[in-house]
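Task 17 of the worksheet. Students: predict the tertiary structure of the chain below and write it out as structure tokens. Keep your answer in the requested format; marks are given for formatting as well as content.
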Amino acid sequence: MVLTAPYVPETIVVHLGYPSAPARNVTVAFLDYIKNVASSEVYPTWPEAALRANIYAQISFTMNRIYTEWYRSQGYDFDITNTTQFDHAFVYERSIFDTISRIVDEIFTTYIRQIGQVAPFPAPYCDGRQTVCDGMHQWGTVELANAGYNSFQILQYYYGEDIELVPNTPVMSYTPSYPGTPLDYGDFSNNVLIVQYQLNRVSANYPTIPKISPANGDFNLITVAAVRKFQGIFGLEANGVVDEATWYQLSYIYSVVKRLSELETEGVEYASYTQILPTEISLGYDGVGIDLLQYFLSVIALFNSSFPQVQITGVFDEVTQEAVETLQRNNGLPVTGVVDKETWDLIYDQFQGISFILPSLLSRIPLKPYDGVLLRQGSNGERVELLQRYLNAINDVYTDVPKVEVLGIFGPQTYNSVLAFQRLFGLTADGVVGRDTWNTLLDVYESTLRRQNPDVPQYPGYPLVEGMSD
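Model answer:
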């Protein structure tokens, strides 16, 4: 497992039996897999909020299996099984319910994660009647939906308040994490750094493995010693070389000790890796570390309105270049748009300086652009839920805008709140949310974030040094 932004796999290999059983493997599109699982596990007549909550959990659980390479790191040639004892129910070539197909088409690139974490949340669940577990109860989601909970509130009820939904995840083909050639003494790379970081975490549970300090990507003698000890503990040839077997065994044990596939997961934080980037990276680069760079820049942008909104795409694109240039300009570096060591150190230092407040920042409501659909009385769905969440957040500062129940249904209460908002901000007061009202909602919500979090400092965009006063 390599630190990278999670992705939705184009296809997934399903083993039609228990993991160790000699059963058939089938390769299906991820979208079709989720539709099959949902159609096999829940009833299409359930309330939509319950269906969405279950499908979010199924998506996130499956992405966790892909992200951790759970089965492949154990030597299997598949991604997931069709047995509910281990994974999801999956009935090959079964028919799909139209209601479920529609919802999956809409949300299959959205997964659950804990705030401030990288890995998709494992989202365990059970039916809640014949089988009771510590995760989500599927029949319980129906009761909550009937009581007025929306899909996200249902997820929070079972998984806690510190989760968020991550939309628009890129769809990519699966690429094995093993770098392709063994890592050995004298190597220096990001992959060595990953091995060192994982060994250091595993050593907390297996203290005879020596700690590697500093973990800096240099495959030195202490790293050789740590690899040999790990190999000896887990029955591998203790030669100090990280071959494919050692790489995946380490990946698997790391996932186990971090409990990455359990409800009480330790998680993986972006800041856990002090990633080593190439000497210089620039426009067009798509190698190891670009995900982390873009994540750091996106966090820094929260504190500086002059920064563009960087997306984690895995490619050094024009927006990333613009953000780098802005940071260089604000900090007195040559404005090249190229990330050299000095620029990287600056980016990492600024990220570290604000990372302690990330949970409060990342818990904010996602900003979604206007999608061209008018919202009015009678409208329903995720967009209405989002509208209602914006209105409630704005009420924390502008109390003339009444709070509403977040049900995903545009009723009289939401209509009156929209009217009040439009009147307060000089918009046409018709109770209909079109482009102008939606965009104003986004602007006002953004402006209220700092007022709602007065202890969060606003980074000015440049270093503060001795002798300055402002």
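Marker's comment: The first strand starts at residue 8 and ends at 9. Residues 401 and 421 are 6 Å apart (CA to CA).
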